[in-house]
Specification:
This protein has 178 residues and is of the alpha+beta class. It has helices spanning 28-42, 81-91, 115-124, 146-149, 156-160; strands at residues 55-60, 65-69, 97-103, 130-135, 140-145. A hairpin with a 4-residue loop joins strand 1 (55-60) and strand 2.
Length: 178
């Protein structure tokens, strides 16, 4: 009998994502789906200048998940991933954000929304809206509330509380007889 020589092939496996906890009434499967979509759309980012690709997934009130990726241009004014996803949500006629996932580059620390994006999220979300920032292909993450990222925020509710301030009458100049 002849023995057959066998070769063993080793396949390097990616680290399995940690089991996520249920947050803000979202099922773990829904949260996993949002993370998957944010990580996937990140691959579509156009970031030739910063090389900092970001993807975002936003869960709307209807349960639809809207995604967006950052898009830079030569004059350095970029559309951020969160803004892109919010624009998709608004373009579809929706106005309420239930949850946000932000997926930054795998080789860098977790990316949380910038100040401008936090303000945009504030326009359509509540203080308790969860914002889940992930890295390493979604394997690692941290959950914030909008209020923790943007305390004492100025938003739509701030404007509804304004009272009309009466204008003072203009002082009229009296003509003086000479």
């Amino acid at each position: 009998m002849t023995k057959k020589k066998t070769t063993k092939t080793t396949v390097k496996k990616k680290a399995a994502p940690k089991k996520r906890k249920k947050i803000a009434g979202l099922t773990t499967s829904l949260l996993d789906e949002m993370v998957e979509k944010a990580v996937a759309v990140r691959g579509n980012a156009y970031a030739p200048y910063s090389k900092y690709q970001v993807g975002a997934a936003i869960l709307s009130e209807s349960g639809t998940i809207y995604v967006g990726a950052n898009c830079e241009n030569a004059h350095y004014k970029a559309t951020h991933a969160e803004s892109s996803a919010i624009a998709a949500m608004v373009s579809a006629g929706e106005r309420v954000i239930r949850a946000v996932v932000v997926a930054g580059p795998d080789d860098r620390p977790l990316s949380s929304p910038c100040g401008s994006c936090r303000q945009e999220i504030n326009e359509f979300a509540t203080a308790n809206t969860p914002i889940y920032c992930v890295g390493d292909g979604g394997a690692h993450g941290r959950i914030y509330s909008l209020e923790s990222l943007l305390p004492e925020s100025f938003g739509p509710k701030s404007l509804t509380k304004l009272k009309k301030i009466p204008q003072k009458r203009r002082a009229t100049k009296k003509k003086v007889k000479k």
